[in-house]
Amino acid sequence: MNAAKVNRVVLIGTGAVGCSYAYSMINQGVAEELVLIDVNEAKAEGETMDLTHGIPFAPSPVNVWNGTYQDCGSADLIVIAAGLAQKPGETRLDLVEKNTLIFKQIIREVMDSGFDGIFLVATNPVDILTHVTMIESGLPKERVIGSGTVLDTARLRIALGKHFNIDTRNVHAYIIGEHGDTELPVWSQTSIGVEAIDTILTRKGDENRKCLEKIFVDVRDAAYDIIERKGATYYGIGMSLVRITKAILNNENSILTVSAYLDGEYGHHDVYIGVPAIINRSGIREVIEMKLNEKEKEQFSHSVSVLKALKV
Prior knowledge:
CATH superfamily of the largest domain: Lactate dehydrogenase/glycoside hydrolase, family 4, C-terminal
Radius of gyration: 19 Å
Strand content: 15-25%
CATH class of the largest domain: Alpha Beta
Helix content: 40-55%
Distance between the termini: 48 Å
Number of domains: 2
Structural class: alpha/beta
Number of strands: 14
């Protein structure tokens, strides 16, 4: 009798983001196997030991080990959090060339193992590096996903929930575009509960309307503000990656604003960018095309052009 199939997730990169992801994975009991890989093997071993000591307090058993690229062959999902981090004063796009070289080597090693699962990319600039991953791996676009604007969207929902004193779970709002300086909020499709935000603002007055732009700017620049204060961001993105992982492994068909490949959607081609997409066990089931107003279309097109200009 064959043993029951277990979910194996491989994490490449045991820096702050990767370890925040691994810690959240264990605490939420998402997968039965979690493999840690890092160019610094001693670091990966140390993180594995530390995480393993917390397993008795986890909601379900999980087998964690520091492995090699050969462990990728049987993986269902590979999460890449390796690469150079964003420094104070540096934009995500400043990291393009340095992290592209690192990624090409990683993807070659992974594919040599016979891997045939799904890639989830977290390293910045995430839209560019997700595209690099698709090209280098040769996998279908549906099985190469970037973390996109999942965290940006969460930040927007949190800010709107605080402003209107409404549970964040009842705030329906989306950030799309580049995970970076050219991202945009889709105000035309934003609602609080069942009520469109424009209707709420009309009722509450212009002062609330004026607050929206500040809310968005604070969301867009949140990473810079955090980096200035503590040097890096990692808890939020780590938990965002777990959310995407659960949508994949549990075959949820959940809608998340990941970095997805556009092949005609929104009138654009050959670019990875943050858009709402249905996520399940096969990866990206479908990209959802939101109805954007003219201003939002222009902003989104600008975001696409910035990414295409930097594509390597």
